[in-house]
Amino acid sequence: MALRARALYDFRSENPGEISLREHEVLSLCSEQDIEGWLEGVNSRGDRGLFPASYVQVIRAPAAEPPPPARYANVPVGGFEPLPPPAAFKPAAQQPPPESFPPPPAGYPFPPYGGSYQPSQGSDDDWDDDWDDSSTVADEPGALGSSYPDYEAAGGGAPGRYRLSTRSEPSLGPRGAGHPPGHPHPPGGGGAAKSSATVSRNLNRFSTFVKSGGEAFVLGEASGFVKDGDKLCVVLGPRGPEWQENPYPFQCSIEDPTKQTKFKGMKSYIAYKLVPSHTGQQVHRRYKHFDWLYGRLAEKFPVISVPHLPEKQATGRFEEDFISKRRKGLAWWMDHMCSHPVLAQCDAFQHFLTCPSTDEKAWKQGKRKAEKDEMVGANFFLTISVPTGPGASLDLQEVESQVDGFKAFTKKMDESALQLNHTANEFARKQVTGFKKEYQKVGHSFKCLSQAFELDQQAFSAGLNQAIAFTAEAYDAIGDLFADQPRQDLDPVMDLLALYQGHLANFPDIIHVQKGALTKVKESKRHVEEGKMELQKAEGIQERCNIISFATLAEINHFHKIRVRDFKSQMQHFLQQQILFFQKVTQKLEEALHKYDSV
């Protein structure tokens, strides 16, 4: 008898690993045992994943095929046992809010924080060097460098790590875990005394606010020793909160990509020469080193936009055009890294820039140190130092207004960047193919006319024939100029747009962290007004929210500052190249024109 269930209500998945259900739909279950209020199964469309146990009724019916193997049969059931909805209750066919569901089971394979960073898959610069261990500190269970919160650490954890939860049912909010909207709270769920009221925790553990450690920090669960070298200072500048400038600014060039081999020529890769201005010592790095560094930084800095790397490519990695394009993309990436006051001074980035290429032991040590960094997750926010004293406090309504305005700005910028990128790409394609072909077609026609005139053997027509032939050559050369021009002006514009599209993809998560903190402040204020929370506890939540708000506004100001610098420079370069291009075209036409003076 195959395990099956019938959907009692509609359910729309919004997170990785979940599947959608339709009312009355029959599903195949992997196991009848629910995992923290969730079941795993396969719906009628063949999708496999998790769904709320209280949304289905288990039935038993014969089936031709055995049920799929249960991946979570041995996972211990924790959390809260969901109650079945009453028979008379039937919610509207819509998705309930994410907060009405319990967190997915521990160990469920959800994607890394931010959703944008994916570790190298081996198609591009495999991790097989001698210094690459098969198991690193970051890969070990419970390692401090892990990308995911440790859901089993509710009652404690490794030293330096924050507790995810030490509370039970009263912290779940107005509804029991896994219940459809409108279901009464389980008995005893709201009987907590006023003096012990707490701000509720997000039950959606996929939330960026939760995964980044922002929630744990705001609720006062972060603890750790912050060294002076780890402090990140926010100061008040003319435009509001800003990251404190790097006292020792530097730049780093990326030059001479060369193909190298190892294992007696069996393995090939491209190495890039990096020359930081503050050391003057060159080092060589492969793309996989950039990829590793990006992963570390994206995990460590949840309220900082770490620039995205150029895209990976499985084939054609050694073609000259691809290598040149990647080098330019990495140069833009490096420029934004060196220009950021926080990222430029990060220990992992400095290790990446300064560790000698031939010192494998030193590289390993620095790599493991970065992967064991304790100032990640909730502890990262402890490192942020914000202005204090009169006039240094933030008005939360004003902060919310600024963040909402920036959110609208990024949405519009993203749309316009996509449009410009499409237009520039289409225009470049026309120049390389269409314009070149059309100008050379004109040149060919002039050449045919010249050849026809040469049939006339009169001496006085020779000069005209030569002038027309030269005009044909001029148009042929102009066609080549059109084909080569996008490399000079349009390609750099599209490279810059690609970099900023990466930044724009980062900011929704950064804003989500700030919005989550602001929600906790509003909730704590409501508890104070109702007499359910002490004022001192609510003030602590607001103070920690201010830290996140200061950091968010500082990052927004840095983005605008660097954006103005980059687009000013790039538009100047674009117009200069356009002027030079048309000057070359004009020169070709003037040379052809002068040939007729002697006719």
Automatic annotation (TrEMBL):
A 1,2-diacyl-sn-glycero-3-phospho-(1D-myo-inositol-4,5-bisphosphate) binds at residues 286, 288, 326. Keywords: Cell cycle, Cell division, Cytoplasmic vesicle, Endocytosis, Membrane, Mitosis, Protein transport, SH3 domain, Transport. The gene is Snx18. Belongs to the sorting nexin family. Its main location: membrane. It is found in: Cytoplasmic vesicle membrane. The keyword Protein transport applies. This is SNX18 protein. It holds the Pfam family SH3_9. Residues 1-61 form the SH3 domain. It comes from Agelaius phoeniceus (Red-winged blackbird). GO terms for molecular function: phosphatidylinositol binding. PROSITE patterns: PX, SH3. Residues 85-197 are annotated as: Disordered. Signal peptide: none annotated. It comes from the Eukaryota. It is a peripheral membrane protein. GO terms for cellular component: cytoplasmic vesicle membrane; plasma membrane. Residues 123-133 have a biased composition (Acidic residues). Residues 85-112 have a biased composition (Pro residues). InterPro entries: AH/BAR_dom_sf, PX_dom, PX_dom_sf, SH3-like_dom_sf, SH3_domain, SNX18_PX, SNX18_SH3, Snx9_fam.
